[in-house]
Amino acid sequence: MKKKTSRGGLPRRRQFAVRHPVLGGVALGRLALAGLSSLAFSQAAFAGGVQTLDKIPEVEITDTTAGLIGTADTANEGTVLKEQLEQRPVYRPGELLETVPGLIVTQHSGEGKANQYFLRGFNLDHGTDIEINMDDMPVNMRSHAHGQGYADLNFMIPELVDNLQYSKGPYYAAGGEFDTAGSVHINLLDKLDHDIAAFSMGTLMDDRAFGAMSRPVAGGNVIVAGEYSHVDGPSTIPDNFNKGNAFIRYSQGTANDGFSVTGMYLKDEFHSTDQVPRRAVSNGLINPYDAIDPTDGGLTERYSLSAKFAHQSENGMFKANTYFIGYNFHLFNNFDYFLDPVHGDQFGQFDHRHIYGGSAAYTSFDKLFGLDTQNTYGFQFRDDDIHTTLALTQNQAQYALVRDDSVTETSAGIYFENKTQWLEKFRTVAGLRQDIFYASDASNLAANTGTTAKGMFSPKGSFIFGPWSDTELYLSAGDGFHSNDARGALTTVVPPNSPGGGAFAAQGKTSLLTRAQGYEVGVRSTVLPHLQTEMSVFDLEIADETIFNGDTGTTSQTGRPSRRLGVEFSNFYKPFSWLILDGDIAFTRARFTNADDGLNDVQPGHTGSYIPEAAKIIASAGLTVTDQGPWEGGLRFRYFGPRPLIEDGSVRSGPTTLVDARIGYKLTESVTAQVDIFNIFASSAHQIDYYYQSQLRGEALPVYDIHYKPVEPPSARFTVKMIF
């Protein structure tokens, strides 16, 4: 949906689950790393002064109180391990990412569509300013038919996730495209402790069957898994979401000295009940779970083959990966209803692409002025071969073509990062990154055909002071960027059948890359037993928020620079081996920083500096109980604060507060029964709110109105899990 002008937890056992630039992202949290980690030198290595190791032994750190003191680069990175994920009630798979402090994952459409993300005062839409990787493969789709950075996680099978590792801010040299507000790296298991089967049935007709097996083969291990899901949901017209996932993986060795080859396949189809206009509900024309256009919906197909390799020696570590992704996508939406009283306003978006890419990095352990230091040299490459189409449709039948584009987008990035422990209580991280992007578009309209290229140089770094009394202070600064849709970077005229009108009118181009600059002061402390506390104050500035609108095939005429100032506070408390308490809250002030010329305002005549849909407050809290005889479970609270929906702040959304729970009971050593309860207190709040112009049948003129999707009503999902 483009009707807008802008687009932790501590591990249960500390096992060096820390960010790792050699991976082009992160290290696997449950695998032992070298005694001198390639992130930074462990606190233990410097307890008695700087040391030199003749070799790099593998160690496993199980200290539950040290947290990431002595290893983290900022106060806003962390890992959520499988044990925590397993006790989290989630209605849809993408909500696992809400374990990242301050991140909201929601949905405004059918279950087969990518989630919508909110973080650090950004409405990230479907992924514009958050980098999401799975098993070292990019999830974000550049120049996607529906929206830039589109990140669909429906191919993720939760039982195969080993951990989530996250960071926030553009402070990491290995973080490239989309790594501005933050990044999430989803790491998958190499083997299972047991074969698994699980069957679920929900009161909203959300049913699922899953099975996985793991076997030793030829000196390594193979995992084979499959999943089928069906969801109807609470909508008057059922979602009829049918999803199948298949997974196979062969691996040898460890994450630091071994390899893996992985194949994945997803196919889904769905009906789409989108947001509804408030006036239609208030006037009794529909209920909140009805649809104005009953024929919206779509399908997605994704298949991939990837490989990873790692080797460590006494002097360094080398890691590389490569991947191929194939993708097909059809989506039919109608957000405006009857601006065209004859055909209605449904449009179809189609995306077919192949993605090729990979990365390699080498980390060496060296000496600098007699001090132990590490240097990482990295290279990343990606090529997208894309065919996108935007058409006007009625009942999913095309009656007019808006635009048809064959896009090639290729990028290469190199980076260097140095980490040095200068003094017992002072270390630094310094990084340099250079990216080059090339894009071409063979459009059906000659005026929108062409090529473009752009480079971006990004310095980054952190000063880390401490620890004193189990407390560290971080000062971080860095440049980052997100790419923009290649079509928007080359479009010069409005397509003749654009839903936005103004055929052949001149259109301003977007820049292919947009710079972000971030500054942050943070503190991480474990001074109180069993409690990890993190707090940061950040300043994140974006050069402009010009966007290409995939729903109309046009570019917003002018971009506005923006700034986000915020405070984040996170806590993770484990007073007993069986109890985890966590709580996070984030405050952000998001504003445009230039004068409003009114050209792109949500509603003409309502100028201002508010960024539409930027949440001021996001908060969450949770309780997790394990190992209480046969019982286990979790309780989650989530608060999504009110947001301005228009630049002058005169129209606002309400807040959304949800509480969910999970209760599990071990019937036998191999069989567990589980119930998830969603929306315990029967909230009638909204998953998402937009403000724009639409026209219902019978209305003489378009009307500006809030359009929203309600949260699901109270429901339960029953699951039986078996291990063999």
How is the topology of this model organized?
Blueprint: E1 19-20, E2 25-26, E3 77-81, H1 82-85, E4 104-106, E5 116-119, E6 122-123, E7 130-134, E8 137-138, E9 161-168, E10 182-188, E11 196-202, E12 206-217, E13 220-231, E14 241-253, E15 258-271, E16 276-277, H2 278-282, E17 297-312, E18 316-333, E19 347-368, E20 371-394, E21 397-423, E22 426-443, E23 450-468, E24 471-483, H3 486-490, E25 513-525, E26 531-542, E27 548-549, E28 554-555, E29 562-576, E30 579-592, E31 617-628, E32 631-640, E33 656-666, E34 671-678, E35 686-694, E36 703-710, E37 715-723
Parallel strand pairs: 7-10
Antiparallel strand pairs: 1-2, 3-9, 4-5, 5-6, 7-8, 9-10, 11-12, 11-37, 12-13, 13-14, 14-15, 15-17, 16-36, 17-18, 18-19, 19-20, 20-21, 21-22, 22-23, 23-24, 24-25, 25-26, 26-29, 27-28, 29-30, 30-31, 31-32, 32-33, 33-34, 34-37, 35-36
**What would the average pLDDT be, to the nearest integer?**
89
The H-level CATH homologous superfamily, spelled out, is: TonB-dependent receptor, beta-barrel domain
Architecture (CATH level 2) name: Beta Barrel
Poorly predicted runs are 1-66
Beginning-to-end CA distance, first to last residue:
44 Å
What general outline do the C-alpha atoms trace? globular
CATH topology: Maltoporin, Chain A
Helicity, as a percent range: under 10%
**Helix count from the secondary structure assignment:** 3
CATH class, please? Mainly Beta
Biggest sheet details:
22 strands, antiparallel, barrel
User: What percent of residues are in strands?
Assistant: over 45%
> How many domains in all?
1
Secondary structure category: mainly beta
* Radius of gyration, taken over Cα atoms and rounded to an integer in Å: 25 Å
